[in-house]
Amino acid sequence: xxxxxxxxxxxxxxxxxxxxxxxxxxxxxxxxxxxxxxxxxxxxxxxxxxxxxxxxxxxxxxxxxxxxxxxxxxxxxxxxxxxxxxxxxxxxxxxxxxxxxxxxxxxxxxxxxxxxxxxxxxxxxxxxxxxxxxxxxxxxxxxxxxxxxxxxxxxxxxxxxxxxxxxxxxxxxxxxxxxxxxxxxxxxxxxxxxxxxxxxxxxxxxxxxxxxxxxxxxxxxxxxxxxxxxxxxxxxxxxxxxxxxxxxxxxxxxxxxxxxxxxxxxxxxxxxxxxxxxxxxxxxxxxxxxxxxxxxxxxxxxxxxxxxxxxxxxxxxxxxxxxxxxxxxxxxxxxxxxxxxxxxxxxxxxxxxxxxxxxxxxxxxxxxxxxxxxxxxxxxxxxxxxxxxxxxxxxxxxxxxxxxxxxxxxxxxxxxxxxxxxxxxxxxxxxxxxxxxxxxxxxxxxxxxxxxxxxxxxxxxxxxxxxxxxxxxxxxxxxxxxxxxxxxxxxxxxxxxxxxxxxxxxxxxxxxxxxxxxxxxxxxxxxxxxxxxxxxxxxxxxxxxxxxxxxxxxxxxxxxxxxxxxxxxxxxxxxxxxxxxxxxxxxxxxxxxxxxxxxxxxxxxx
Length: 606
What we know:
This protein is 23% helix and 21% strand. The chain contains 13 helices and 20 strands. Strands 12, 13, 14, 15, 16, 17 and 20 form a seven-stranded antiparallel beta sheet that branches. Strands 1-2-3-4-6-5 form a six-stranded antiparallel beta sheet, with helices on one face.
């Protein structure tokens, strides 16, 4: 096999190699881009002098005669110089082996439907005398619409150096596919990477012996095809692909909803960011404990009880603790604050300037304590004994405090005034007037209510996009994938090629990107991106004319420039008005074998 072919090379003037997917036994499997059909294709390449080359070309010609929607068709098969290659349709989805490994076995109806679709393809191909020859879970693809597609019809067997197969071999593989979908084990004669089915005395166990809950009808189909020779001889025949299809179609009945249900089982291989594990924190006694620096030696204190003394643990009768070093871990007993001095005179009662008596606690004129039943009028009739409370005349009590009555009156008047104002305001508001009683002006209220508020940015609808690769051969980069960046599905993406050199002045290109057509001139304030990999260098431009060259060559200045992560909101320095938004990638994330990036979702906020 020549070693000169690499990503970017073009075979036969139309097939540009994009990604090397696998390499085995001198054969290479590529994802390529057909410049004539403007879509991706699968490309198998081997050396022209390889012993398998003749069989591969013959198998490709036989496979091309089978016309069925389930097959990923052979599009081309040629020898060019010292290379021999076969071109197939490109399928996007999840193979059955990966689906089972990632999500477990299928339900009986879904398993039967998938295998019945493969059997339908076998029926068409067997009528033309073209068996597959190597049916396995790796050969069955559930695509992104939920349809079942079969990979490598007749070609896969030739690539592995196998002779042309026969229909009976395919029928056994069909039973193996049903067995695998129901149990997660492979029982067919063709090789597969799935775990093999368990056996007893050399015979494959029935599906119901491996996993409970499998319907008897499906168990019988597997048993009649994969069971012992004696069992098959006495069984009612399921001998052809048509028999398998009929039995499974009868079991499934109406298949409505099954393709849609299989979409949730598709495996999307995005490389997750794996952070290093953080060990749990454990409290351990270290071999050599860490200690604080020892304080200066201090006099040995009197023996203390075990444990560090605290303020709460000191006995209450100790008047003064023993002197200790300042660094000792005890708490200083706070000093008791002195009592506040007694005020010299009551508040609001300054000493009279005329030399009158100071207002203090009530003191009687006559010396000595008054009796408990004192009555202010010195009459025998006024004396009351017992526990009846004594009330003082407030006017008499206030006579000795100058200004107190005036202050009290002012407070009462102020309270009454506030109350009246509050009642008036509430009354006016209740009548639909202003607080002062005036009739409100409708124009002023309408103008105030109609004052516009600043609206939050909203996504622009109806965006269309094209790829921009001015330094490429055709000026575009994967134009068939551009719609994946606007379909609302984060699992699909517009992606770049894999480049050996990073973008920049020293690289093959300075950049590439997407041109978004907003449909009309609109104000752009932010661009939100979901990117494949990180970091990705991104520049954002807004213009009124769709560029056909790089933004720098077109004389455009970037309105925002970031090194973006997987999810990035890019606000513009200033909102800009224009019809076209250019998302320009100036650097790509590093991947195995080079540099590659992409955009899975984007939106423009106005």
